Amino acid sequence: MNKPTNAIPFVIAIDGPAAAGKGTLSRQVAETYGFHHLDTGLTYRATAKALLDAGLPLDDEATAEKMAREVELAGLDRDILSQHEIGEAASKIAVMPGVRRALVDAQRRFAKKAPGTVLDGRDIGTVVCPRAPVKLYVTASAEVRARRRYDEIVARGQAADFEAIFEDVKRRDERDMGRADSPLKPAEDAHLLDTSEMSIEAAFQAAKSLIDLALNRNT
Ligand code: C5P
Questions:
Q1: Model's pTM, two decimal places?
Q2: Count of alpha carbons within 13 angstroms of residue 162, beta-carbon side
Q3: Which atom of ligand 1 is nearest to the CA of 175?
Q4: Domain ranges (residues) in the chain
Q5: How far is the CA of 179 from the centre of ligand 1 (A)?
Q6: Does ligand 1 have an atom closer than 6 angstroms to the CB of 87?
Q7: Which CATH fold topology does 9-35+116-212 show?
Q8: What's residue 218's pLDDT?
């Protein structure tokens, strides 16, 4: 692997399954180091939402790729895109190589921003930025992830069905890990962070130690 130099913006790749805690961790890391952050899941979600809003089918790859090429990274709104149906639709179109090509191009352009970037998703360390100097794979058991989702919904004062959420998490994992193009898996050189029995603060401290080491190597 080429050693990154100061001239190359520093990239932190954070991958993992849905609801493992990588979003919170990524935002905290980006804020700490003053890096730009991109939640790449939002790019798949924005593509899916554009198709749904236009009443277009989710199984036509050429149309979905065209929509993916029009996604503006600057306009991604987490509140609007976090809806459950949009996540389901996103994971369906994410199996299409044409959609992935379009979004990976945009994500790689984002990764060039100085002084550095944090990208989180499913294939950052394996496909989007395989030469990232820090790769983290954040995971937790499906049951723990479903429990966190459930608690989040209940905390908002809404009704939630644990079994349905658990089934949903497992179905999303199967789709993300089982697809032929860029399946979810840890890069060979990724550091695993299993947050099943780890607080977000402990996960952040572990991530920070790894990032500080890599930054020191880089100066
Ligand atoms: O992370 P989030 O739940 O927002 O992602 C929505 C869907 O987008 C995921 O289930 C996955 O199928 C897809 N995705 C992907 N590659 C990424 C990020 C998200 O395939 N890098």
A1: 0.93
A2: 7
A3: 12
A4: 9-35+116-212, 39-114
A5: 12
A6: yes
A7: Rossmann fold (3.40.50)
A8: 77
